[in-house]
User: Which sequence fits this backbone?
């Protein structure tokens, strides 16, 4: 918890660090009072907005910030500020190194000044001065505006991803059977009732045998659970909707979430199973309770997997629902045919479809994976806790089982 609050503190003060640096630079620029005032106002607004968003989340305030303000705060502090702080750190190291080198070269002389070590000093209005002013003062705010505009335009959009999976041991009766895989709606600030309507229309048009939902139905607030239940009720597969829980579902009150979903009549699988008769053949859906937020194996994840997989039927085609995709390792070892997972958001901010946070943080992060005859599909999810996606589009996955 100490580390968490340290990170929050660093994020909060980042705007003041940028303000101090930019203001010091502007003081060397003639007629820069307007720039200095604008920088101060912008930094104070960003810090105040961050405090408001953090406080409303931490205290579950009745007055929640809008999606626009939340997106702007997230993008300023988590996308714009980190490279600015890194640039400042590099600049500070360079200046200190240059001064130390100058002292060692000429020990009898005083420490080198900025002019002596070759760093730019703006002494009057010039093209270079105007360019530096624009870079220091205007680039971060402009980057935030562009990122926020892009993110808001992207919210609510998603793709339909179709994946055919061949199994040598698939019963002929199940050849062509289909499952819609939904995950990570994160109903709340960035996924709203209008988005639910679009999700329902797109999913129901797929005309699948079953719908599997692999966790993070809500962002964190239980006030959004009724909307989540409306989503689950509105799905119309030929057979049933089956559900497992995710870490965001449990942030506010684990028991209240689990009881709410079950009392609505949905099979929320908490280390349990539910068998459907699809095309005259048993398909057993196993569901893991949330066992760990870790990116690697953990005792909690292992215990949850063991309790769930012990229920596997040898006479049925088996499908494991697990929010964390690392459950695939346990499922493959236990002989489970298909594992469905989410949690990763496809890496959220990827440099390319295969390079970025996804493969850095997770063994399985997006799409289809195989271990022998066992298969796993990790969904990018259809909602967002963070407003911007890059090379990791939101999606509904339509899975078709094929006999190899």
Assistant:
């Amino acid at each position: 918890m100490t580390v968490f609050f340290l990170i929050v503190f660093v994020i909060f003060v980042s705007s003041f660090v940028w303000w101090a640096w930019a203001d010091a630079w502007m003081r060397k620029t003639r007629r820069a009072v307007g720039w200095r005032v604008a920088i101060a106002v912008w930094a104070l607004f960003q810090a105040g907005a961050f405090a408001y968003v953090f406080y409303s989340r931490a205290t579950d305030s009745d007055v929640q910030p809008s999606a626009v303000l939340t997106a702007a705060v997230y993008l300023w502090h988590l996308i714009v500020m980190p490279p600015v702080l890194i640039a400042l750190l590099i600049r500070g190291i360079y200046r200190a190194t240059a001064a130390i080198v100058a002292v060692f070269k000429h020990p009898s002389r005083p420490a080198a000044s900025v002019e002596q070590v070759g760093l730019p000093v703006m002494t009057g209005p010039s093209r270079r001065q105007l360019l530096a002013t624009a870079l220091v003062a205007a680039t971060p705010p402009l980057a935030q505006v562009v990122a926020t505009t892009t993110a808001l335009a992207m919210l609510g959009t998603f793709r339909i991803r179709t994946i055919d999976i061949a199994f040598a041991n698939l019963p002929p009766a199940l050849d062509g059977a289909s499952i819609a895989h939904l995950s990570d709606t994160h109903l709340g600030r960035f996924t709203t009732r209008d988005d639910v309507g679009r999700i329902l229309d797109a999913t129901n048009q797929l005309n699948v045998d079953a719908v599997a939902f692999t966790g993070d139905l809500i962002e964190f607030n239980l006030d959004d659970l009724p909307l989540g239940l409306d989503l689950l009720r509105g799905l119309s597969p030929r057979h049933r909707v089956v559900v497992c829980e995710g870490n965001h579902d449990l942030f506010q009150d684990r028991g209240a979430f689990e009881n709410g979903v079950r009392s609505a009549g949905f099979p929320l699988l908490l280390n349990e199973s539910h068998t459907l008769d699809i095309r005259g053949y048993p398909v057993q859906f196993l569901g893991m309770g949330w066992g760990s937020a870790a990116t690697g194996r953990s005792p909690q994840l292992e215990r949850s997997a063991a309790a769930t997989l012990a229920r596997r039927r040898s006479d049925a085609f088996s499908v494991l629902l697990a929010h964390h995709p690392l459950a695939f390792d346990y499922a493959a070892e236990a002989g489970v045919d298909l594992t469905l997972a989410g949690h990763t958001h496809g890496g959220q901010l990827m440099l390319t479809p295969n390079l970025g946070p996804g493969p850095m943080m997770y063994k399985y992060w997006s799409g289809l994976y195989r271990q022998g005859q066992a298969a796993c599909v990790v969904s990018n999810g259809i909602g967002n806790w963070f407003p911007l996606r890059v090379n990791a589009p939101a999606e509904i996955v339509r899975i078709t089982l094929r006999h190899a």
In short: The two ends are 50 Å apart (CA to CA).
